[in-house]
Amino acid sequence: MYRQPLSRLLLLTPLLLLSLSGCNQQSMVRSDAFLQAPPPEEELVARYDPWSEEPREASRLAPAAVHGLPKREERGERLPVDPENLWTKIRDGLRLEIVEREEIQREIDWFLRYSSTLERYATSAAPYLYYITEEIRKRDLPMELALIPFIESGFRPEATSPAGAAGLWQFMPATGRWLGLQQNRLYDGRRDVIASTDAALRYFAHLANELNGDWRLALAAYNGGIGRVQQAISRSGEGDFWSLELPNETRRYVPRLLALATIISEPETFGLVLPKIPDRPYFAVVQLDSPVDLATAAELAGVTRSELQRLNSGFQRPLLDPQHTNHLLLPLAQAEQFTQRLAELPVNRRMQSRQHRVVAGDTLGALAQRYGSSVAAIRRANELSGTLLHIGQQLTIPLTGDAQVATSNSGSGSPASRKDNRVIHVVQRGDSLWTVARRYRVAHQQLAEWNGITPRTILQPGQRLEVRI
Fold first, then answer.
1. Does the chain have fewer CB atoms within 10 Å around its N or its C terminus?
2. Is residue 276 part of a domain?
3. Which residues contact 272 (CB under 8 A, 6 or more apart)?
4. Which residues on neighbouring strands pair with residue 395, listed in sequence order?
5. Total structural domains within the chain
């Protein structure tokens, strides 16, 4: 008889993890989390489907690829191994045996009908896949797990299901909270690439351990809930995935992943061209010691706001606050520049917006006047359809150029005088040409030209600079 290490727990929660997909499962942030209390009971919900677009016509594919997995003796030569390509490491780490089953062949056909989508998701995976594969390698887990986000989210950290599951690994809100992933208006750990990946891999390791190291059963439990898998084993008296009576979605989930692993291992056999992903880090993890808003961080790093947001989808507002997570992901090439420029920028100048919690008597007009912003800007930043505010509501207040100068001046006490469209800035200790230019939102090269100096000039305290704004 197959052992049931969770039998005692199942007596207390007979419907443990009644979730329809991996998007309903738990991230794991503490190794003993599963021993402390049962997870919240989930209802059956609609899962996020990243493959919902119209599929490519099968007739456009090579005829040999339309009918699923060719017999081994019919497969062509594999492409030369490229040790610099991340796909090589993934292929070398695949562990699950691929058996000749109709269920897997059917899923291969399904993927090939969506071949253009698969190739596009492979491109979307590029920023995250190296980190995920390295974490899998460090934990000595099957590399098939790196393919889960293809199925769950299409490798989109911002993806959200109709039921509220979110992130690369599609965790539900209740299970995320149960395991300690923060979720509030400013930050959602389910969308944080670092936190959610750690959670998913710890949870997979837990499932495999509870299910005697059977990774097919672990995958089924991730999708349908370990309670369902345990109950199916009890009914059948066997521990073989293929013999279990499980919901249709779960029965399809495991063959789908095995089919994807087969295609990834030999894409040339199926007429697919996967984009080359270098086997090296895409992003660096930078530590934050104070809040900085998204626009400022993007400017410091020299990247677009959309690229920065894509890497840091856990932040729900344009405010990066170490109170929620102290790490910021940046493209590797920009990390050093960001760190250097952030160190040069005083803490009170790192915000182009302010956070305000609404109290009795607040109105948008009064807040706009108080912060030197505008009603329209506040409404846009907070996606407000009207002007009604609620006590306790958290607002992001964008600061205009004038408001930033005024706020910075009042915060630092550095003297500056205005004449027409010019500001005379008196250099303070710690000022550099770049930080002064950043303060007044002008290019530092332009600031140097206005003052007859070079961009590399070292400023001296008391020096007067003309700023044209």
1. N
2. no
3. 112, 115, 118, 119, 263
4. 356
5. 4
Pairing of strands 416-419, 464-468: unpaired
Report pLDDT for 69: 40
| Beta bridge partners of residue 85, listed in sequence order | 278
Q: Which of 296, 51, 312 is nearest to 158 (CA)?
A: 312
Q: Which residue from 233, 225, 246 is spatially nearest to 15, judged by alpha carbons?
A: 225
Better-predicted residue by pLDDT, 213 or 186:
213
* Residue 419 shares a structural domain with residue 396: no
Q: 53: pLDDT confidence band, cut at 50, 70 and 90?
A: low
Task: Report the CATH number that the domain containing residue 312 is assigned in CATH.
Answer: 3.10.350
Residue where one domain finishes, among candidates 233, 248, 270? 270
Q: Is 368 helix (H, G, I), strand (E, B) or coil?
A: helix
Region of 56 (left: φ > 0; alpha: ψ -120 to 50; beta: rest) is beta
* Residues that are catalytic: 152
pLDDT higher than 50, residue 368? yes
Burial class (CB in 10 A: 0-12, 13-18, 19+), 458: exposed
The two structure tokens encoding residue 238: 């066997």
Contact 276, 127 (CB under 8 A): no
Specify whether 331 is located in the same domain as 238.
no
Other Cβ atoms within 10 Å of 424 Cβ, number: 13
Residue 47: pLDDT band with limits 50, 70, 90:
low
Q: What is the pLDDT of residues 216-244, one digit of tens each?
A: 999 999 988 889 999 999 998 888 999 99
- pTM, rounded to two decimals: 0.70
Quote the CA–CA distance of 113 and 120 in Å, as a whole number. 13
The 10s digit of each residue's pLDDT in 229-284 is 999 999 988 889 999 999 999 999 999 999 999 999 999 889 888 999 999 999 99
Sign of CA dihedral 87, 88, 89, 92: positive
Q: What is the CATH number of the domain that holds 420?
A: 3.10.350.10
Give the separation between CA 202 and CA 33, rounded to whole angstroms.
10
Does the pLDDT at position 26 exceed 50?
no
Number of H helices and number of E strands within the chain? 21, 9
113 assigned to some structural domain: yes
> How is 372-412 classified by DSSP, letter by letter?
T--HHHHHHHHT-SSS---TT-EEEEE--HHHHHHHHHHHH
Q: Is residue 2 part of a domain?
A: no
- Domain assignment present for residue 176? The answer is yes
Report whether 19 contacts 251 (CB < 8 A).
no
Q: Determine the average pLDDT of the residues in 417-444.
A: 74
Range of the domain at 62: 7-270
How far is Cα 250 from Cα 218, in angstroms, rounded to an integer? 11
**Contact criterion met (CB below 8 Å) for 227 and 8:** no
d(CA 159, CA 153): 6
Q: Are residues 243 and 210 in the same domain?
A: yes
